[in-house]
Amino acid sequence: PLPSMALLAHTLALLAMAVATVAIEVVPLDMAPDSFDDQYQGCGPAMTKALKKLNQTEFQGNRDFATGWVKAVEVLPTRVSSLDPLSPAQAIAVMAYSMKYLYIQFNSAVRTAGRSGQEYRENFHFKALHFLLTQALRALRVAQGPQCHDVFRGVKGVRFVAQLGQKVRFGQFASTSLSRAMAEKRGTDTVFQVHTCHGADIRDYAYDRRYREVLIPPFEVFKVIKVFEEGGEARIHLSSTGTFSNYNCEWLRGNSTG
């Protein structure tokens, strides 16, 4: 019986390796044209006024958002000594994003909500979180002074492909780390090395400070400056060239139909 068990174990191990290989998705980097990329330029106060009503409706229709928000409210006082320069709502939004409850669903929605204004108004149920995170990153960049960061982003299960010289966006809020080792703990199928000038250091407001997180907004544009493979895994270097948005203050423009 032992040899047959050993053979079975060996077969299962090979099968697991085959499944793991098949499971890696190949995704081309691009300008993420369907991303909801609003920067809310010139409408911060008006959006803040609209938030109260927005938050209530989004809590009711989105359990992940409600759960993440409540958990962040509970945890924030134990992790953060000073909210400054963020408002309480902005600090809660950053904490909620950095926890496990909603960032996957949220970023998946951000990547597709920009297909049309109607798609954003009717089917994107993270309007408040998107606005608060965008404003929080802006406030932190102002407080931290104009600076760029060299950061890393590790991805598991996806091998991104890119062309040298190509202009690309992540099209979502992209978590990166100042530590390559920490970034690679999240995956090595693709490892990005990124020079970001619009991301902000959020570690003082994040659930796990050890990650040394810099959060990059969906609208930052990068040039692909290096692409290579390492042990069958993708390595992509990006350098910031500025920002680009298809939307600005979209909720206020289309509020009457929302």
TrEMBL record:
GO terms for molecular function: NAD+ poly-ADP-ribosyltransferase activity; NAD+-protein-arginine ADP-ribosyltransferase activity; nucleotidyltransferase activity. It catalyses: L-arginyl-[protein] + NAD(+) = N(omega)-(ADP-D-ribosyl)-L-arginyl-[protein] + nicotinamide + H(+). GO terms for cellular component: cytolytic granule; extracellular space. InterPro entries: ADP-ribosyltransferase_ARG, ART. The keyword Signal applies. The keyword Disulfide bond applies. One of its GO terms (biological process) is response to antibiotic. Keywords: Disulfide bond, Glycosyltransferase, NAD, NADP, Nucleotidyltransferase, Signal, Transferase. Residues 1-23 form the signal peptide. Its EC number is 2.4.2.31. Belongs to the Arg-specific ADP-ribosyltransferase family. This is NAD(P)(+)--arginine ADP-ribosyltransferase. The lineage of its organism: Eukaryota, Metazoa, Chordata, Craniata, Vertebrata.
